[in-house]
């Protein structure tokens, strides 16, 4: 190593993802190997993302990390596994201008500093661990000039948090569960990029941004140990659904996509109820939202022989999915459908009296404009959705809405002003 004074830094931005076919259950707790394949859509990092700066310097005397401005411990197994796996793949780095020369073997002796920021609530069921671990692994790989491609990196991010492996790509992503005992074939692949189905609009109703009671890790461990439904789901249901979902995505078949997405979310929450003790991630507001969506899209109910049929209007269909929390993630098939959906949502779930619209609908605000809504008065003047009989207004049930769309995978931020660590000290700015 040339001198003792330099700091080498890399800053990356990584999206979060929402599963449309859920991962729930591990067959190996340490390596984080799942009991079934899963498929997710990556959310636009312009609206929901993690930014992570990683730095290395001979002046650092230990690995340190700051998350959302607070120092956290890196001693946990998940962080240690990611750091170890990336260090094992580090390559020689030379920057003549800064007088930096790091040989492959030097990486084992050098320490790193990590600062990370989530622009959305952490540990509230919005997959912060997914964006967080994907960003950590991606940024470290770039810092250490690792040659692995994003699929190979996904197998490392997986050891931080299972769902993180799917955040290494944009668009629609499949996590292949794999068969190998060492987990080497349990990795993410991109099904299609974000341009393939770019008319989709995603609206997230953030019902509660408080930290949840049962973490995904604990919840799925309990489900694996006690739920028979989980075993049936992993063996019989998901393999068929994965194939159908891949077809629906490939053909941009929104009807099938929505039906599969809603069914899989419902089954995941049924598994949670089938767990001992039962886990309740959805709350009353979540249930009201499902009822609201079903009423909006199902024009009429009719009985035929002993079966009960619901005739759903394809053009009004909205896919819903709930992760390990009460927040609804709604996917509309195009802008027009999303505009109508937002109008109806704002009628049924208006902000509490003191809220301002600017902080009630965040992300891509242009959908509000399309809906002809400029201020709170416009929300108050919205007509009741014609499909819903005696529609109730549940004021204050939703904290805020995020409007977004399918987005791209991780990227490097070259603008040094966006770095979270100081370029000379390597400490948080
Ligand atoms: N930016 C980040 N960088 C590294 N680790 C992070 C980051 N953000 C969150 N984490 C880790 O993820 C943990 C939160 O994960 P958890 O699964 O409880 O919640 P979540 O990912 O927000 O929700 P869910 O996965 O259920 O949708 C944090 O305690 C922290 O260890
Ligand atoms: C409901 C889910 O969001 C579960 C995510 O679980 P995590 O990936 O957070 O769990 P660990 O692997 O234990 O870190 C479904 C999904 O994202 O597929």
UniProtKB/TrEMBL annotation:
**Quick one: a GO cellular component term?**
cytosol
Q: Which UniProt keywords apply?
A: ATP-binding, Lipid biosynthesis, Lipid metabolism, Lyase, Nucleotide-binding, Peroxisome, Steroid biosynthesis, Steroid metabolism, Sterol biosynthesis, Sterol metabolism
Assign the protein's first listed, main location to one coarse class: other
Q: Biological process GO terms, please? A: isopentenyl diphosphate biosynthetic process, mevalonate pathway; sterol biosynthetic process
Question: EC no.?
Answer: 4.1.1.33
Reactions catalysed, semicolon-separated, are: (R)-5-diphosphomevalonate + ATP = isopentenyl diphosphate + ADP + phosphate + CO2
Q: Which SUPFAM superfamilies match?
A: GHMP Kinase, C-terminal domain, Ribosomal protein S5 domain 2-like
Q: Which intervals hold domain Diphosphomevalonate decarboxylase-like N-terminal?
A: 15-188
Please indicate if the UniProt record lists Nucleotide-binding as a keyword. yes
Q: Which residues form the Mvd1 C-terminal domain?
A: 202-412
Which GO terms fall under molecular function for this chain's record? ATP binding; diphosphomevalonate decarboxylase activity
Q: What InterPro entries has UniProt attached to this entry?
A: GHMP_kinase_C_sf (IPR036554), Mev_decarb (IPR005935), Mev_diP_decarb (IPR029765), MVD-like_N (IPR053859), Mvd1_C (IPR041431), Ribosomal_Su5_D2-typ_SF (IPR020568), Ribsml_uS5_D2-typ_fold_subgr (IPR014721)
Compartment annotation? Peroxisome
Entry function: Performs the first committed step in the biosynthesis of isoprene-containing compounds such as sterols and terpenoids.
Query: Sorted alphabetically, which NCBIfam families does this protein's record hold?
Result: mevDPdecarb
Family, per entry: Belongs to the diphosphomevalonate decarboxylase family.
Q: What is this protein called?
A: Diphosphomevalonate decarboxylase
């Amino acid at each position: 190593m040339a001198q003792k004074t330099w700091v080498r830094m890399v800053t990356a931005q990584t999206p979060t993802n929402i599963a449309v076919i859920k991962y729930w259950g591990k067959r190996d707790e340490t390596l984080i190997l799942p009991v079934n394949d899963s498929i997710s859509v990556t959310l636009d990092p312009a609206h929901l993302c993690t930014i992570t700066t990683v730095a290395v310097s001979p002046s650092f005397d230990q690995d340190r990390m700051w998350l959302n401005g607070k120092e956290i411990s890196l001693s946990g197994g998940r962080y240690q596994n990611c750091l170890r796996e990336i260090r094992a793949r580090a390559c020689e780095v030379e920057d003549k201008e800064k007088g930096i020369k790091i040989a492959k073997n030097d990486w084992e002796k050098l320490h790193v500093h990590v600062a990370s920021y989530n622009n959305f609530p952490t540990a509230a069921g919005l997959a912060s661990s997914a964006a967080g671990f994907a960003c950590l692994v991606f940024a470290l790989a770039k810092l250490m000039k690792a040659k692995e491609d994003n699929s190979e990196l996904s197998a490392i991010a997986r050891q931080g948090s299972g769902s993180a492996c799917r955040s290494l790509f944009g668009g629609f992503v499949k996590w292949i569960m794999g068969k190998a005992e060492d987990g080497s074939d349990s990795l993410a692949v991109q099904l299609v990029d974000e341009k393939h189905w770019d008319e989709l609009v995603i609206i997230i109703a953030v019902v509660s941004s408080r930290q949840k009671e049962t973490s995904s890790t604990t919840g799925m461990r309990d489900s694996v140990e006690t739920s028979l439904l989980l075993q049936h789901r992993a063996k019989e249901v998901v393999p068929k659904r994965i194939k159908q979902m891949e077809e629906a995505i490939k053909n941009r078949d929104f009807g099938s996509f929505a039906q599969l997405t809603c069914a899989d979310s419902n089954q995941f929450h049924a598994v949670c109820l089938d767990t001992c003790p039962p886990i309740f991630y959805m709350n009353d507001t979540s249930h009201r939202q499902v009822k609201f969506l079903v009423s909006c899209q199902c024009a009429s109910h009719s009985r035929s022989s002993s079966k009960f049929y619901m005739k759903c209007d394809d053009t009004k269909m909205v896919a819903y999915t709930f992760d390990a929390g009460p927040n609804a993630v709604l996917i509309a098939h195009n802008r027009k459908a999303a505009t109508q959906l937002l109008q109806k949502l704002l009628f049924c779930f208006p902000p509490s009296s003191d809220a301002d619209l600017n902080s009630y609908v965040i992300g891509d605000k242009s959908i509000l404009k399309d809906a002809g809504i400029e201020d709170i008065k416009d929300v108050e003047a919205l007509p009741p959705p014609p499909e819903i009989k005696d529609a109730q207004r549940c004021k204050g049930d939703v904290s805020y809405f995020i409007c977004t769309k399918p987005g791209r995978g991780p990227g490097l931020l070259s603008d040094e002003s966006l770095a979270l660590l100081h370029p000379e000290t390597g400490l948080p700015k």
